[in-house]
Amino acid sequence: MSDKREQVHLRNEVMKATLIKSRLIKSRLIYSGMVLLVIVLGLGTRAYGNELPAFVSAHFGDALWAGMIYLGCRALFTRHPLWLSLLLSLGFSFGIEISQLYQADWIVQIRATTIGGLVLGQGFLWVDLIRYTAGVLFCYAVDQILQN
Fold first, then answer.
1. Contacts of 134 by beta carbon, 8 Å cutoff, 6+ apart
2. Residue range 18-43: mean pLDDT, rounded
3. pLDDT tens digits for 97-120?
4. Phi and psi, residue 146, nearest 5°
5. Residue pLDDT, tens place only, 114-141
6. Which residues of 131-143 are buried (b: 16+ CB within 10 A; e: fewer)?
7. CA–CA separation, 113 vs 4, rounded Å?
8. Nearest 10 degrees: CA dihedral of 137, 99, 74, 138?
């Protein structure tokens, strides 16, 4: 009788672990899909900036970039608390912005490429830190709402 009970317990534990793993995969796929959506939106602010309201064109690209970093952190660290992704994404975004103060020839050449400019930016601006904070906090707040 005890063996039967242990088998049932073991089967329940395996089913629970499978469910947790499938939720983890589902969450990572959702966050990854959101990263792709935000990339498209961010590139859209660059490509169609002249057709967008001036405020949107001026500020949303950087906010979306930082929001994408938050969503990427969530995709990587799904099992960790939301605040960890908040701190990591702000730290990463601020680090990239501060790195723009460094202007050695080799990094300037990388920034001159399309992908280098999109990832590393061009030059330090204080207002970018505000844009990054707004983008990360927006994604964090939406994430908080959807988690509850």
1. 59, 63, 66
2. 92
3. 999 999 999 999 999 998 898 888
4. -70, -25
5. 889 888 888 899 999 999 999 999 999 9
6. bbebbbbebbeeb
7. 65
8. 10
CA angle 37, 39, 42 (to 5 degrees): 110
d(CA 119, CA 79): 26
**Residue 51: pLDDT over 80:** yes
Question: HSE on the CB side for 122, CA within 13 Å?
Answer: 4
Predicted model pTM: 0.85
- Contact residues for 105 (Cβ-Cβ < 8 A; gap 6+): none
Residue 44 CA to residue 46 CA, distance in Å, equals 5
Distance CA 54, CA 84 (A): 33
